[in-house]
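The protein record quoted in full:
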Amino acid sequence: MRYRQLGTTGTQVSTLCLGAMTFGEADEKSFMHKVGSDERESYAVLDRAIEAGINFVDTADVYGQDGLSERVFGAWMAERKNRDRVVVATKGRFRMNAGPNGTGASRMRITRAIDASLKRLGTDRIDLYQIHMQDLRTPEEELIRALDDAARAGKIVYFGASNYAAYRLMESLWVSDKRSLDRFVTLQAQYSLATRALEREHVPLCAKFGLGILPWSPLAAGLLSGKYQRGQAPPDGSRLAQWKERYKTFDTDRNWVIVEALCAVARELSKSPSQVALAWLLSRPAVSSVIFGARNVAQLDDNLGAAELDLPPEALARLDAVSAPDLGHPYDFIKNIDGAW
């Protein structure tokens, strides 16, 4: 396993981060119904991840129902007595309670959400607390002051953003600088060979200001795993067989061209498509760690092969070219004049 700095902090995290969204068997009220792992399998995945050198685990209060993922993860840490071996990351912002203040990123809401996550995780601090999505109703200064207070109180160590527009992320950094408050150190966002919109604004911003990028859905919900084929229905039991509407958004000619190129590179390197897709992300600027999920130990072991994989320049160039996003204006105009944007 290799390790990198978490953004520009001094904390070292494994280049692969275990995503805990699948931990626990959620009921029909949860979007994770029928796509999760029971507690026994979740423990086995966590044990194997730690054994392989992963020291970074990411969850959220909304994974499963009633904080199920956090509770499973917290119970595992308590049983294994290994809290200090793990960099614990979680997120809050989406609805967890009824009423107008049961969701959002207000000072009152986030203060309560942090305390609730601490209780479910059974820990005295959260190493990386992330705002799951920007909240247009809450002034960014209100949020940053609440997070700064939580850091000063020792409840959280660092804080990060997730699913932020670039303009809002820049505003947040400005508030932190202007008010001498702690600031976001990471950005967690959807990023993969199939989804590269992040490169227009967010990647240059994070590279310039030292935020570590934490890609989520690096395999595009499994599309880049090699198990899906053009013109064929998703395999029974797969996540995209369950999430039919999401599969329709991936079922495009562009994505199948990417999948075919990815599988070709994987065959040439005698690696799995998942390993190549994860290794491609690890080659991108400002990426600190790539968050991947595993419903069982076999999936985990396959993904672990990406940690030590350095893709040849020719393979990187092929994958870059076939997955290149449509930049749009003004990015394509700037690139045509200056060669970059």
